[in-house]
Amino acid sequence: MKYSLLLLIGCFCVLNLTSATKVRYDKYKVFRFTPNTQEHINWLEKLKQVNGITFWDGPSANIGVKSDVMVSPDTHTYLLQSAQLAGINNVEYISDVQKLIDESAVSSVNSDKHNWYQYSRLDKIYEYLESQKTKHNKTVTLENIGKSTENRDIKLIKISKGGKERPAIWIDSNIHAREHITGMVVTFFIDELLNGDNTELKKMLDDFDFYILPVVNPDGFEYSHTTDRLWRKTRSVNKDSTCIGTDPNRNFGYKWLTGGSSTDPCSCTHAGSAAFSEPETQALSNYYNKIANQTIAFISVHSYSQLIIFPYGLNDEKLSEEDYATHTQISKIAAAAMEKRYKTAFRVGSITDLLYAASGGSIDWVKAVHKTPYTIAFELRDTGKYGFLLPSDQIIPSGEEFIDGMIAIGPELRKFKLKNNNSGSELLKPISKFLLLCSTVSFFMINRLR
The pTM is what? Predict the structure, then answer.
């Protein structure tokens, strides 16, 4: 096993070099490996440095947690021989990645406007956001919160009935470029919130303001459409390297680069030259810093695996027992609601419970720095049949599930609002007592003067 792996050692993230040529994945396969021993986990960990191999999911440090591995045509024979020597079980999940890429681009509708029957490019998403600002000018504010490395706008939509300040819900998507379903689901949510007829969803606007960032990583997102469908990172230049980009979800400034991330610019989990080195993570964090005190839920939307996960991304830190129980309870309510419509099952747990070590993530930073009460990530459809290449006919069902989950947790999030209101009134008690004392003193002084 040792020697067969050594034959394959090379770059970490397939086709990571700068290139203007359209990347194709003809006859690339995806295998699922399930480790049953610590030796299997060690074997998977070594695969991260193998040429022609890219992890779509994993590897985890937990026995029994699967890893999905994409393998180039000239590597998969060696890989399977090595797996056989290691005695690790595997299943071929995708026989030809390029075929799935081509199929996922097929749609029954061919429109030049953003819709939920086909995957949209960045310009169509931004045009859609602009149209909603025009249509709902009393409710919708559209802000450019920063610029990407390649000078693209990073646009955030705020949806609020105005008047009193309400507790806020933050939602973002497409922090990882290749997760196209995420931005489609989030814009579907926006559309139903503004234009739909679901009264339960509409009620959420009475109680909450929404801050929604549909494309956190616009450069990587566009690159995944024009050049490499499976691109994950940003498009920043790395000093002294021909490899491009940083994983923005390893670039946040809490326990940055302390596990589950890489210093190698060619790695798909490259953490960057420093915390918040990327203009995209700077834009998100700078904006969130301004609204964090108002925000009771931070929701980052990813794909795939059908999970609802919460902090933390390292084994040396856990939520408090009470906070863990709260996150579990609310997330299970969401999962139950999301399963009802199409029987799509979502599992619930912390990042390290269900996935793998990952430092520098956005939800860890939000929870640790800002103590936002409910801080989670959704991993949307599916569980591996299509992976990142979910067919376009699953956009609307995925969006409906997400809305079902959001409506279901609404009553739980409202409890945070009441708690905040109560805490606000507690803050007013000392002031009230002081005013009462002043009134009493004034009363006696006036009487004495008489």
Answer: 0.90
| Bridge partners, 154 (sequence order) | 146
Round to whole Å and give the CA distance between 206 and 64.
Answer: 44
Instruction: List, in order, residues 6 or more apart from 369 with CB less than 8 Å away.
Output: 253, 254
Q: Is 165 a catalytic residue?
A: no
Neighbours of 111 (CB within 10 A): 11
Tokens for 269?
């989990």
Closest CA to 252 of 230, 283, 222, 223: 283
* Inter-residue contact 257 to 359 (CB < 8 Å): yes
Catalytically annotated residue among 379, 400, 401, 426? 379
Listed as own residue / partner, the contacts of 227-230 with beta carbons closer than 8 Å and 24 or more positions apart are: 227/19, 227/20, 227/21, 227/22, 227/23, 228/15, 228/19, 228/22, 228/23, 229/23, 229/25, 229/101, 229/178, 229/389, 230/14, 230/23, 230/25, 230/54, 230/70, 230/97, 230/178, 230/388
In angstroms, rounded to a whole number, what is the distance separating the alpha carbons of residues 325 and 349?
10
Nearest CA among 51, 169, 73, 69 for reference residue 384: 69
Q: Which is higher by pLDDT, 435 or 403?
A: 403
**pLDDT value of residue 28:** 98
- What is the bridge-based pairing of β-strands 209-213 and 168-173? parallel
pLDDT at residue 423 greater than cutoff 80: no
How far is residue 247 from each of residues 81, 86, 175, 230, 352, measured CA to CA in Å?
31, 30, 9, 13, 18
Under DSSP, the state recorded for 369 is: I
Token duo for residue 388: 């990142």
Q: Are 270 and 278 in contact (CB under 8 A)?
A: no
User: d(Cα 233, Cα 65) in Å, to the nearest integer?
Assistant: 24
In the DSSP assignment, the letter for residue 50 is: B
The predicted pLDDT at position 164 comes to 84
CB 252 within 8 A of CB 358: no
Q: Quick one: average pLDDT of 398-422?
A: 84
Task: State the Cα angle at 248 between 244 and 249, rounded to 5°.
Answer: 135
Averaged pLDDT, 278-307:
98
Half-sphere exposure of 176 (CA within 13 A, CB side): 23
